[in-house]
Design a protein that fits this description.
With 494 residues, the chain is α/β, with parallel strands linked by helices. It has 14 helices and 21 strands. It has helices at residues 18-21, 64-71, 98-101, 120-124, 142-153, 164-175, 204-211, 220-227, 232-245, 254-274, 298-306, 317-330, 449-453, 469-479, and strands spanning 2-4, 27-29, 50-57, 77-84, 86-91, 105-108, 131-133, 158-160, 184-188, 214-218, 248-249, 278-281, 335-343, 348-353, 370-373, 382-385, 392-398, 404-413, 440-445, 460-465, 482-484.
């Protein structure tokens, strides 16, 4: 199917001329995009400040003021191209709609008098650019809302504006690079087959098309072969820092701290050399082994997060991407944790894990007090931090197919320490020292606990200090990801 279009590049003097060209509109036939694994996936954001916007409407001169508002967006330089079209005239098609497919954003205002819009999404095909639609009559938005829904059904990132000013705001969101655009990640382990959190439905291309992040997998044995080359002086300097800044060192042996410090020096060198934003290891593939292939990475991941990088545990891809998003927005390291239990009457959740950031409150703020302990009583070393009470936090995470992001505000509350509890009562000798819970635990009170329980994104959630609902909303809109939230995004009171 096809539609009548006329393409004109808009300049200030040329804008008024486009009305006289409407009757001369040539047909630009419509063809769908080539088949791809994820329909409607976004193509890479353009480099620099220039953006190409195609404006689909029947009377461009009537919307000169809106176009001028778009062109006045300070952050970008917009080249606006109107395509004059008549949705009533749909005919057999021929060639592709190059102008739309090559644009960065599609902006649509339907004719004032029409009852045909349902065929337009199908005619335009599976677009991989953001679409912003402004109703021509703001008190009669039925056709536009249906059309946006049809675009979304095809996987497109379609947004419905509620005023000209709102349309400009949405166009500004659409023009921004995705928050993870160009970020690079390396995970050591089997591709998308974490020992604890496998993700067989994902692959590198799917993740890139959704988020803009590039993920590469490498064998864990690569790290083992590189450890011997780490400077002994650098590892000892890191070890002494951990011991000096700790409140106390309990079960952790010096050799375990040195080995963990050596792994950190190696991982940090890889991050710096390759310009990574995320690095992870399938640590549970060896953590409970009697002869682990690598030192426990808990200290490494703590320090890397404090350094400003995402370092998710257990090679968890979805939660790793969640860490990248929340750390990028908050500019604070994240607590990557399990939602261990919930109390609906108390409306609280207990968050546990063996890795927690020291600089939870942000860079330049005092780091959290910590003890150095062993890993679940099995050796190695982990930091046990003392979390602050009464602070606002944001919890969240992508779901398993990256189509939704759970966003939940909370507030930290005090709880009795229980991390020394043994894993088994009357345990056999091999498990006598094994602790049931991770070294770190935190209780967070939330609103609408029943909905939170049914919205937990997976094994891991990510928590950062502070509240960022608007920034997260815009980031998810840009990636065509739906937000799952409570009705009230304010944190519970103290």
């Amino acid at each position: 199917m096809g539609m009548d279009f006329k393409c004109v590049h808009v300049g200030r003097r040329d804008f008024i001329k486009t009305g006289t060209l409407a009757g001369m509109a040539a047909t630009l036939p419509v063809a769908g995009l080539a088949a791809q694994e994820m329909r409607g996936a976004l193509k890479p954001s353009p480099q620099g400040r220039k953006r190409r916007l195609v404006f689909l409407t029947d009377t461009p001169p009537a919307y000169e003021k809106i176009v001028e508002s778009i062109r006045s967006i300070k952050e970008y330089e917009f080249e606006v191209t109107p395509l004059v079209f008549n949705p009533q005239k749909i005919q057999e098609a021929g060639n592709s709609i190059r102008e739309i497919k090559e644009a960065d954003i599609l902006f649509i205002i339907l004719p004032r008098v029409t009852n045909r819009s349902g065929h337009i999404p199908a005619a335009l095909g599976d677009l991989d650019i953001p679409i912003v639609q402004l109703p021509v009559n703001l008190d009669l938005i039925m056709l536009e809302s249906d059309m946006v829904a049809a675009f979304r059904a095809r996987g497109a990132n379609a947004m419905l504006a509620n005023s000209p000013a709102h349309a400009v705001e949405l166009i500004k969101i659409a023009a921004a690079p995705r928050i993870l655009e160009g970020k690079k990640a390396v995970i050591y382990g089997r591709p998308f087959d974490s020992s604890s959190i496998p993700a067989p439905n994902l692959n590198e291309d799917f993740i890139y098309k959704r988020t803009g992040a590039r993920i590469q997998y490498r064998p864990i044995t690569d790290l083992k072969s590189m450890l011997a080359g780490v400077s002994e002086d650098s590892a000892r300097k890191e070890m002494e820092r951990w011991k000096k800044e700790a409140v106390k060192v309990t079960e952790a042996a010096d050799q375990a701290i040195l080995d963990a410090s050596r792994l950190y020096v190696l991982l940090r060198s890889i991050v710096d050399k390759e310009g990574l934003s995320l690095i992870s290891i399938d640590c549970l593939s060896f953590s409970f082994s009697t002869n682990p292939v690598l030192p426990y990475p808990c200290l490494s991941f703590t320090r890397l997060r404090d350094d400003g990088f995402a370092a998710p545990c257990e090679a968890d891809v979805c939660a790793g991407l969640s860490s990248m998003v929340l750390q990028e927005i908050s500019q604070k390291p994240s607590y990557f944790c399990n939602v261990s239990s919930v109390d609906e009457k108390k409306s609280s959740a207990v968050l546990r894990h063996c890795v927690a950031p020291l600089k939870l409150m942000g860079h330049g703020k005092p780091q959290l007090p910590y003890n150095l302990r062993d890993y679940h009583g099995l050796g190695g070393v982990t930091p046990e931090v003392q979390f602050p009470m009464g602070i606002e936090v944001t919890m969240g995470g992508f779901n398993k197919d990256l189509s939704n992001f759970t966003l939940w505000p909370g507030r930290t509350i005090s709880r009795i320490k229980d991390t020394d509890r043994p894993s088994f009562e009357n345990a056999p000798p091999a498990y006598a020292k094994m602790r049931r819970y991770c070294s770190n635990h935190l209780e967070v009170t939330v609103k609408d606990m029943g909905r939170f329980l049914q919205s937990i994104a997976g094994c891991h959630h990510v928590m950062v200090a502070g509240s960022y609902p608007d920034e997260i909303r815009k980031a998810m809109m840009r990636m065509n990801v739906d937000l799952v939230t409570p009705s009230d995004l304010g944190a519970p009171g103290v």
